[in-house]
Design a protein that fits this description.
- With 257 residues, the protein is of the alpha/beta class.
- It has an 8-stranded parallel β-sheet with strand order 7-6-5-4-3-2-1-8.
- It starts with 8 loop residues before the first strand and ends in a 5-residue tail after the last helix.
Length: 257
């Protein structure tokens, strides 16, 4: 982390879990465990039907609400879709785009991820842009090339001013929900490369201001070591974000030099 130049962000991704009725007791437990002086921005990205409830519940302990996906369209006959305008209207401050599960199960392309990020930026919502390689790509020494391409595609047509509101989340696909985690050195190596790619496009100053999160099974046990890396500015947390005590422990791990 480098708080001199950029935000530290801990963002939970609840995926398709929890209910509206479960948010209040969750937040009460989270507040009881949360460090009094938070060194980071804390976000919980919930299913769309829970965002409004999270906005209200999060005010007391300064937790921002986020979405998990957004449509590439503004409005129209797109059954089941949620637009950036709708997310803005209910108070979402962040939204995940390009998560590997969306890419795998819904066929999202890099250009769709780019379009979604732009829609969010138009409405003042911070996109959390996910990138990451498969196990096969890592074993064939293609990690850097593949991730670099994803970053370039996701940021295509986004200017330096808008870049300030973008967050990149490196999520090695082979470490999501598997219990496997990249070593802190492996995670740092890729996050450093992501920043180098951004530097080549925008220059040094904009690149050092971009928050890069690690999203491959960060948990209460490994968070401190991962967050000690210079180019890892936080985490996109899956399973551990559903456990208030564990999530609070990860937030507490940001309180290091």
């Amino acid at each position: 982390m480098n708080r001199k130049y950029r935000k530290t962000i801990i963002a939970g991704n609840w995926k398709m879990n929890m209910t509206n009725s479960g948010i209040k007791p969750f937040m009460e437990e989270l507040k009881a465990n949360m460090p009094k002086a938070k060194q980071c921005d804390v976000v919980l990205c919930t299913p769309a039907v829970m965002i409004q409830t999270m906005v209200k519940a999060g005010k007391d302990c300064k937790v921002a609400a986020g979405g998990q996906d957004v449509s590439i369209y503004d409005k129209g006959a797109y059954t089941g879709e949620v637009s950036a305008t709708m997310l803005e209207d209910i108070g979402a401050k962040y939204c995940i785009v390009g998560h590997s599960e969306r890419r795998q199960y819904h066929g999202e392309t890099d250009m769709m991820v780019n379009a979604k990020a732009k829609k969010l930026l138009e409405k003042g919502i911070n996109p959390i842009i996910c990138v990451g390689e498969s196990l096969e790509q890592r074993e064939n020494d293609l990690t850097m090339e593949y991730v670099a391409y994803q970053v370039k595609a996701a940021l295509s047509g986004i200017d330096a001013t808008a870049l300030r509101h973008c967050v990149i989340a490196y999520e090695p696909i082979w470490a999501i929900g598997t219990g496997k985690t990249a070593t802190s050195e492996q995670a740092q190596e890729v996050c450093e490369e992501i920043r180098a790619v951004i530097r080549k496009i925008y220059g040094a100053r904009p690149a050092r201001a971009v928050s890069i999160l690690y999203g491959g099974s960060m948990n209460a046990k490994n968070a401190y070591e991962l967050l000690a890396q210079p180019d890892i500015d936080g985490g996109l947390i899956g399973g551990a974000s559903l456990k208030p005590a564990d999530f609070a422990t990860i937030v507490a791990a940001t309180a290091q030099d």
